């Protein structure tokens, strides 16, 4: 298997999501004016399918991810979890640099490069985050955001298996960022496809565990306070993403620490 072969699943995911987005765009809106306004505001023409995926995600979370996150929080002290978080963030800085540059945010790209250098060398590979608080705070930039800056519309709401709330633009962005992330290619060049795949799986698992553990209380509170958890999560995740894109100034009050970071 060549390095190009590893890209095919991501391209298949991208093509499938674009097809879903196209099908959703062709969905016939309700004829009633009030229902049509609600339909357009919700922007979720694939809601029956999305709810099915959501239920699958909830099942997976109940039996695997949430229990694992609770054990992780119980077993690992705060400083150790912070070290894992710092290393994962530092590993993503090259992709952040790429996207900041593609968006024309050259000051942020330079800051990201400096931050990566400081944290990698002086911070021992990102174990310590020496940049934050010293003029090199982390920059938010991903390819979904880049596509937004380039004028691509977000498309309809999508609930992705495992990865959760998204839209076609951000799903494509995630696929591109995953391909652009350099470390799997470095591992592949050094030791072959087997180790590269193991690295990718380990990175995804560690990122999922880190993010879920940082949002245990937030998601529990959101679910308990929601009459319809799916609808509430759709609304809150969309508002949070728009805040990250600079479309709205303030994040939703009830999202707490929920974040893709």
Please tell me about this protein's structure.
By secondary structure, the protein is an all-alpha fold. It is 67% helix and 2% strand. It contains twelve helices and two strands; from the N terminus they run H-H-H-H-H-H-H-E-E-H-H-H-H-H. It has helices spanning 8-25, 33-42, 47-75, 78-91, 93-102, 106-121, 143-149, 168-180, 182-191, 193-214, 216-224, 229-244; strands at residues 158-160, 164-166. It has a two-stranded antiparallel ribbon. Helix 7 packs across helix 8. The longest helix has 29 residues, at 47-75. The chain is globular. The chain starts with 7 loop residues before the first helix and ends in a 17-residue tail after the last helix.
SSE inventory with pairings:
Blueprint: H1 8-25, H2 33-42, H3 47-75, H4 78-91, H5 93-102, H6 106-121, H7 143-149, E1 158-160, E2 164-166, H8 168-180, H9 182-191, H10 193-214, H11 216-224, H12 229-244
Antiparallel strand pairs: 1-2
Helix pairs in contact: 1-8, 3-10, 4-10, 5-6, 7-8, 9-10
């Amino acid at each position: 298997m060549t390095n190009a072969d590893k890209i095919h699943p991501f391209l298949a995911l991208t093509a499938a999501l674009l097809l879903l987005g196209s099908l959703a765009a062709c969905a016939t809106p309700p004829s009633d004016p009030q229902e049509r306004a609600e339909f357009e505001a919700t922007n979720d023409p694939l809601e029956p399918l999305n709810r099915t995926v959501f239920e699958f995600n909830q099942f997976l979370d109940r039996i695997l991810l949430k229990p694992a996150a609770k054990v992780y929080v119980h077993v690992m002290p705060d400083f150790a979890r912070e070290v894992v978080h710092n290393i994962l963030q530092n590993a993503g800085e090259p992709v952040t640099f790429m996207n900041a540059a593609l968006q024309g945010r050259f000051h942020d790209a330079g800051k990201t490069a400096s931050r990566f250098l400081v944290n990698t060398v002086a911070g021992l590979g990102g174990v310590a985050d020496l940049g934050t608080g010293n003029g090199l705070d982390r920059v938010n930039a991903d390819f979904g955001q880049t596509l937004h800056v380039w004028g691509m519309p977000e498309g309809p709401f999508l609930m992705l298996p495992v990865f959760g709330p998204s839209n076609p633009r951000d799903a494509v962005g995630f696929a591109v960022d995953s391909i652009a992330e350099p470390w799997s290619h470095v591992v592949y060049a050094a030791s072959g496809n087997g180790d590269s795949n193991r690295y990718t799986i380990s990175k995804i698992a560690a990122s999922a565990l880190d993010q879920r553990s940082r949002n245990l209380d937030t998601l529990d509170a959101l679910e308990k306070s929601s009459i319809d958890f799916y609808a509430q999560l759709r609304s809150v995740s969309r508002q949070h993403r728009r805040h990250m894109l600079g479309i709205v100034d303030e994040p939703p009050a009830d999202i707490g620490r929920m974040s893709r970071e």
